[in-house]
Amino acid sequence: xIVLHNxxxxxxxxxxxxxxxxxxxxxxxxxxxxxYKAGPANYYFNLSKLWITIFTALRHGICAFLxxxxxxxxxxxxxxxxxxxxxxxxxxxLVLFYVSNVYxxxxxxxxxxxxMYSSY
Length: 120
What we know:
By secondary structure, the protein is mostly helical. It has helices spanning 2-19, 26-31, 47-72, 85-107, 113-118. 66% of the residues lie in helices and 0% in strands.
């Protein structure tokens, strides 16, 4: 059940955003092949950019984890119950879900109705 939840709320949005994103029309891309020189030159995807992305994800995860764990570690609700690991882990998951989606939306160039619908 947890895997289905992760698939529904994480993968599907990413798949919709990147599947329907495009830069220019096909006919113009054939006429102007110089627009895609960066791909074979590994300008956007190389080993250093991969490690930068990994460290950025680790930084986001560590910051979200520490911020939530330290703020909710001694939190008590109005009835005197202490928040347990379930509440902390759910909050961390939700924060990381929104952080990853905002990061994805900041990199999206082309927006259409499918991207807007999948973001909600």
